[in-house]
Amino acid sequence: MAPRTTDFLVVGGGILGLTLALELKRRHGDCSVTLLEKEPACGLHASGRNSGVLHAGFYYTADTLKARLTREGNRRLAAYCVERGLPLDRCGKLVVARDAADLPGLDELQRRGRATGVPLEMLSADDVRRLEPRARTHERALFSPRTATVQPTEVVASLVADAGAADIAVLTGVAYRGRGRGGVFTSAGTIDAGYLVNAAGLYADRVARDYGFSERYRILPFRGRYLLAEPGAPGVRTHVYPVPALANPFLGVHVTRRLGGDGAVKIGPTAAPALWREQYDGWRNFRLDECLTIAARELGMLWRDDFGFRRLALAELRTHGRRGLVRRAAGLVDGIHPAAFRRWGSTGIRAQLLDVREHRLEMDFRYEGDDRSFHVLNAVSPAFTCAFSLAAYLVQRIGERLHVVAAAS
Question: 123 - beta bridge partners?
Fold first, then answer.
């Protein structure tokens, strides 16, 4: 049963909601912490459908939160997996150049890595062949030794166990319904919450608007799918990624080494605009109001060509199907053929934040809050990697807001 009162109420049971709850309990051990998750278990959305790649942190400019938090997040999550005995593959990542036009992008990634202290190695084409014989590159490539792979569902399950051990009330199957005079309305009754922490992912903007925030922001969902290699298909020793278009928050179709010890791979993801927030498969979870609102917004972006949306949409159409994905991946790794990739993995939804005033996608983490509530509005990749460091950073921001109130009183 839901408690009638709680000091901190966290909405959302993904990896960030769990680490936020744990960090709140660690810093305010004498306070009660309750977490709401509308699904029957935690981590059934973005966290459980994550690629499992622990990013090193060299994609981001030094002035961003992503750059500040990813390197430490990588270290802490890898150490957590070792401590708990969870699967961890320190396979590294190659970023390859498809042609001469990609070389300046490689140089920029190396510069960003140096600025944020992320270890990187610029390799010649011969060095690349020794590291991963199947990788294809033009002249040179960038290698990230700190990039790794984990099993997201096992990480989430371990954090749920940690929350239980810390006396955090984890309420699954209990949905947030809104804010009222008596407290927070949920599907299990009203909870009088001293402070609300919103980590609701796809619905973070809706929860935030109940508290007067997210006025200029809306969640724009993107569907991501991977193709899985058939059993016995050739594997790779390391992840192989293209040089991304740094103006957009997507890393492009890549070849990802899966856990399991055999080097088996998956290729993807797609990045198709979704028409409703939980458009995973078929018409399940269809919401007409969401579909109408999101479709109208996407048509407007196409008409205005916001942030190069037309080019992004056209590129996605070319890689949306199985053959398109295989063709893009074959440009990165030799020996990738359609016959070896017949199965789709679970669909994931990226809860990408859109600034509706400036008509642009938010590239960095975004949050808003006051002395009554705090809202994590943009927690997209690499938020899984950053979970521990991001939670520590955000709880510090929450503490500052609470300290102002305490000092004033």
Answer: 141
> What burial letters (b/e) apply to 363-396, b meaning 16+ CB within 10 Å?
bbbbbbbeeebbbbbbbbbbbbbbbbbbbbbbbe
Q: Is the peptide bond before 104 cis (omega within 30 degrees of 0)?
A: no
Q: List pLDDT tens digits, range 292-307.
A: 999 999 999 889 988 8
pTM: 0.95
Dist. CA 105–CA 244, nearest whole Å: 8
Greatest CA separation for the chain: 68
Task: Give the tens place of pLDDT for each residue, 264-295.
Answer: 899 999 888 899 999 998 898 999 999 999 99
Euclidean distance between CA atoms 281 and 278, whole angstroms: 9
How far is Cα of residue 377 from the mean position of the Cα atoms in its chain? 12
Mean pLDDT across the chain, nearest whole number? Answer: 93
- Cα–Cα–Cα angle for 37, 38, 40, nearest 5°? 85
Listing DSSP states for 318-335 in one string gives HHSSHHHHHHHHHTTBTT
Q: Do 309 and 302 touch, CB atoms closer than 8 A?
A: yes
- Report the alpha-carbon distance of residue 225 to residue 227 in Å, rounded: 7
Residue 160 host element (H or E): helix 152-165
